[in-house]
Design a protein that fits this description.
By secondary structure, the chain is an alpha/beta fold. The protein is about 30% helix and about 25% strand. The protein is globular, with a radius of gyration of 23 Å. It binds zinc ion. The site of zinc ion has 6 residues, from helix 11.
């Protein structure tokens, strides 16, 4: 771990802390494992119906959250409403018949969704690709600051771009090439879809690879067979790429094998600066229909107005949405999302309650924010940041959580996106008081910093922290924690088995919430504005 340079502002904070404040301790003690458990049990119950936007589960969830915000002492954040409407369009895509690829003179049928997982973010009702050329475009990245352009040698207009997941740094390990093992935003599938649209491609297929994606193929497969939610396009918005999706590693091997290529070799070549995209000689045909339902879903937020600077605020956030009722697995069809994201909502409510319990109001405001449609691409939080109840320049910090594992007390405080802002240093002090250490996310290749709602805030320049105990159990050590995490990610994550279980241990989340309360308290009772660190890709937004 790198040494910390503690900024002056943080020293001041620590000095204030040394004064020892009984009322902070009392407030912190209102954060309890029992209440975290109760919230998680309720939010993960079948009665919430998997908390999916546009379903009866949405009404039940948002009303429950608004009720709890009121009960713990918060006021509505949007004028006199707890709710903010987020205009969305739900697109149900049906691929008609097989996807046919003609390669080396013969036709290969690709099964949907097992070989290819196709989505269409288009407002067109019918999309057809007729024998369009497939072009292998390396990682599908245009990154001027790295002097990198995977499209410089080809024109993919009207064609199907086939690209690799993640960015070259992961596969070379060279920290001077992109950011080495740490995924840059260029490695994210959303960024690749955006680039394909800019290039005018008619379709983009990402070759799946578990290490580079950060999850196995079942995740995009499942996402492709459920209706997709998108922000409703405004007039003048750029057209999205009309056919987007993934090709499984096995299907890609068959296809490229038939063309006389080896994917591993192509990947190695694509990591070189002199790699040139090429027409594969294969072509793809498919037809799909889209049906659109315009609707709006609700963000939920409460505010505890500051005593002297109510126009400045911190935001504590955790998305409320999950996947509703879907494909049955082991006799269960309700995607409860107890860990994704019940435990984090519980964490946020408990931090909020600690603030609300204090007789003396903090100087700045505290906003508890439960965004909708995180699972569909951070839609609720990006809408909130574009239409905030408090000017975005005056949102001084954001604390988000997602997938908070209830595994008991941890020695570590894992920071995803470590090194981005001074919030790291503030958290380090709070963690030290709990005898814990900060741990940069050991798997930065999965791009988790771009995968939950804090990213919407970071993208708008608001310093945002995504941190939790995760890797080093106080009782059972690291290997045990890694095994438990893996069990969750392979057995429960985005599956009906993400239920509340009585054996969940909330003692660690209690400590996490108390540490974040500690950091957040000093920010709202001071005029500190945590800064981005030099070199952060978000440092120059404000
Ligand atoms: Zn989540």
């Amino acid at each position: 771990m790198k040494k910390f340079i503690v900024p002056l502002a943080v020293m001041a904070v620590v000095a204030a802390a040394c004064g020892g404040n009984r009322s902070i301790e009392k407030a912190s003690a209102t954060i309890t494992a029992k209440e975290l458990r109760d919230y998680t049990r309720i939010l993960g119950a079948d009665s919430m119906m998997g908390r999916k936007p546009f379903t009866p589960g949405e009404n039940i969830t948002v009303n429950y959250l608004a009720g709890e915000l009121g009960r713990i002492g918060f006021s509505p954040a949007f004028g006199n409403s707890w709710f903010q409407e987020v205009p969305l369009v739900e697109i149900t895509t049906k691929v008609q018949g097989p996807v046919v690829i003609t390669a080396a003179g013969s036709k290969m049928e690709m099964t949907v969704p097992d070989d290819v997982a196709i989505e269409s973010p288009s407002m067109k009702e019918f999309v057809e690709l007729v024998d369009i050329p497939m072009v292998f475009c390396g990682f599908g990245i245009v990154a001027p600051e790295y002097g990198w352009n995977d499209f410089s040698a080809v024109d993919v207009k009207g064609k199907c771009a086939v690209v690799l997941i993640n960015d070259p740094g992961l596969y070379t390990g060279d920290s001077a090439l992109f950011r080495g093992k740490t995924m840059t935003y260029y490695g994210r599938w959303t960024c690749k879809y955006e680039e394909a649209a800019r290039q005018g491609a008619a379709a983009i297929l990402i070759i799946h690879e578990t290490a580079g994606a950060g999850y196995d193929y079942s995740i995009p497969r499942k996402s492709s067979i459920s209706p997709g939610l998108y922000q409703e396009p405004a007039p003048g918005d750029p057209e999205p790429c009309p056919v987007t999706g993934w090709i499984s590693a096995g299907a890609a091997d068959r296809l490229f094998g038939a063309l006389g290529h080896d994917i591993e070799k192509l990947r190695r070549e694509a990591c070189n600066r002199d790699f040139k995209a090429f027409e594969t000689g294969a072509s793809i045909s498919l037809q799909l229909t889209n049906s659109h339902i315009r609707n709006s879903s609700l963000n939920v937020a409460g505010i505890l107005p500051g005593s002297t600077h109510p126009e400045e605020a911190i935001v504590i956030t955790a998305h409320w949405d999950h996947f509703g009722v879907g494909e049955t697995e082991n006799g269960d069809s309700i995607y409860n999302g107890a860990v994704d994201n019940g435990t984090s909502m519980a964490w946020a409510l408990e931090i909020g309650e600690a603030f609300a319990s204090m007789k003396k109001r903090p100087e700045r405001s505290v906003i508890l924010f439960f965004p909708t449609s995180e699972e569909q691409g951070l839609l609720g939080s990006s809408w909130f940041v574009a239409n905030p109840p408090i000017r975005v320049e005056n949102l001084v910090a954001c604390f988000n959580n997602d997938l908070l594992l209830p595994l008991g007390r941890m020695k570590d405080f894992m920071v995803t996106g470590y090194g981005q802002s001074e919030l790291d240093d503030m958290l380090a002090r709070a963690a030290m008081k709990q005898n814990r250490y900060l741990l940069p996310d050991p798997n930065p290749e999965t791009g988790m910093y771009f995968r939950s709602d804090h990213f919407s805030f970071a993208h708008a320049g608001v310093p945002a922290l995504f941190a939790r105990g995760n890797c080093d159990s106080r009782e059972f050590g690291r290997e045990w924690a890694a095994t438990r995490e893996k069990e969750y990610l392979t057995g429960r994550y985005h599956k009906p088995a993400d239920n509340y279980y009585p054996e969940m241990n909330f003692d660690g989340i209690t400590e996490d919430a108390r540490a974040v309360f500690d950091v957040a308290f000093y920010i709202v009772t001071s005029d500190i504005r945590p800064a981005w660190k030099a070199g952060s890709e978000f440092a120059n937004i404000r």
